[in-house]
Amino acid sequence: MNVAADRGTEAVRAASKRKPSSFGPLFDADGEPMNAFAWMRMPAASAVLVACLALLLGACDPAPTPSSLPSPTPSSLPSPTPSSLPSPTPSSLPSSSATEPKQLGPAVPYDLYTHCGISEARYEGRYYELVPPLTDAGGNPPAGWGNPSQPGTLTPVSETEVAFTDGIGHRVTFTLRPGATGWKRICA
After folding, report:
1. Over the stretch 151-166, which tens digit does the pLDDT of each residue have?
2. SS3 168
3. Got the DSSP string for 84-140?
4. Which top-level group of life is the source organism from (predicted)?
5. Contact 91, 103 (CB under 8 A)
6. Tens digit of each residue's pLDDT, the chain (188 residues)
7. Is the C-alpha dihedral spanning 75, 77, 83, 85 positive or negative?
8. Phi, psi (degrees; rounded to nearest 5) at 176
9. pTM metric for this prediction
10. Are 135 and 141 contacting, i.e. CB atoms less than 8 angstroms apart?
11. Which of 2, 17, 68, 156 could disulfide-link 105, Cβ–Cβ 3.0 to 4.6 Å?
12. Per-residue buried b or exposed e for 95-117, using 16+ beta carbons within 10 Å of the residue's own CB
């Protein structure tokens, strides 16, 4: 070693003897001053440290969002063969408008029983009711409705509602009666 290096080494040794370091002595086993990054020379310790850091940083990575995922290109998608394609059904055909609501079931012709007022409907084996019922003062259908029935269409509008409409502009929405197995009121 040269003289300047010896003076630096002596100064470091003297400083470490006067003020103990919380990290232990600043000299290796041969009495040489340790570089602050001497631990990096140990390959096994470095490899373990790098692996731990990679695991920690990987665990902090947020989950991908749909917008961050790559979208497939037409050339990367497998081309279906005619025999592998399902045959289209009316419910699987695309709608003509993106704003159309999801079809919950078919609209069916329906004769709404109105003799004692408008209070109940049945669609695909499930019973629905109108609360409060539509009646005139005597318990009959309101003016403008047929008696004993009104022809029209019954259409599901949600999981729990069906709407009756007719050709003259009537529209009534009935709500599902969960668990009902028959009519609530029998009118004669």
Report:
1. 999 999 999 999 999 9
2. coil
3. GSPPP-TTTSPPS-TTSPPP-S--EEEEEE-TT-EEEEEETTEEEEEEEEE--TTSS
4. Bacteria
5. yes
6. 555 555 555 655 555 554 444 555 555 666 666 555 554 455 655 666 556 555 555 554 454 455 545 555 545 455 555 455 555 555 444 544 455 556 689 999 999 999 999 999 999 999 999 999 999 988 899 999 999 999 999 999 999 999 999 999 999 999 999 999 999 988 87
7. negative
8. -60, 140
9. 0.47
10. yes
11. 156
12. eeeeeeeeeeeeeeebebbbebb
- C-beta of residue 174 within 8 angstroms of C-beta of residue 120: yes
Over the stretch 75-95, which tens digit does the pLDDT of each residue have? 545 555 545 555 555 544 454
Residues 6 or more apart in contact with residue 28 via CB below 8 angstroms: 34, 38
Spatial CB neighbours of 158, under 8 Å, sequence gap ≥ 6: 104
Instruction: Give the span between the Cα atoms of 187 and 117, in whole angstroms.
Output: 9
Type of residue at 146: G
Give the type of residue at 21: S
Specify which residues 123 forms β-bridges with.
126
Give which of 173, 169, 120, 174 is closest to 145, Cα–Cα: 169
Residue-wise burial string across 19-56, b where 16 or more C-beta atoms lie within 10 A, e elsewhere:
eeeeeeeeeeeeeebeeeeeeeeeeeeeeeeeeeeeee
